[in-house]
Amino acid sequence: MKTVAIITGGNSAEHEISLQSAKVVEANLNKEKFNPIIVHIKEDKWEAIIDDTRLKMDKKDFSFIVGN
């Protein structure tokens, strides 16, 4: 199974539309083949969203810590 990031948000007027689009992509992704992680960007804040848990991301290397 491959882990894929679904990037959403951003710093534009399209922010809310991007959030809705990410939900559609996640809902329609084949979960037998892919493990989706939503990456929400708003201003300088990046978060990975896994099972409704928001985890701070380091945008320099795209990392986050689970279970902290």
Number of helices: 1
Order of helices and strands: EHEEEE
The N- and C-terminal alpha carbons lie at a distance of: 24 Å
Which structural class is indicated by helix and strand composition?
alpha+beta
Helix share, percent: 10-25%
Largest beta sheet: strand ordering: 1-2-3-4-5
Outline the secondary-structure elements.
Blueprint: E1 2-9, H1 15-28, E2 34-42, E3 45-50, E4 53-58, E5 63-64
Parallel strand pairs: 1-2
Antiparallel strand pairs: 2-3, 3-4, 4-5
What is this entry, summarized?
By secondary structure, the chain is of the alpha+beta class. It has 1 helix and 5 strands.
Give an overview of the whole structure.
By secondary structure, the chain is an alpha+beta fold. It has a single domain, classed as Rossmann fold (3-Layer(aba) Sandwich). The protein has 1 helix and 5 strands, in the order βαββββ. It has one helix spanning 15-28, and strands spanning 2-9, 34-42, 45-50, 53-58, 63-64. The chain has a 5-stranded mixed sheet, covered by helices on one side. The longest helix is centred in the N-terminal third of the chain and has 14 residues, at 15-28. The mean pLDDT is 91.
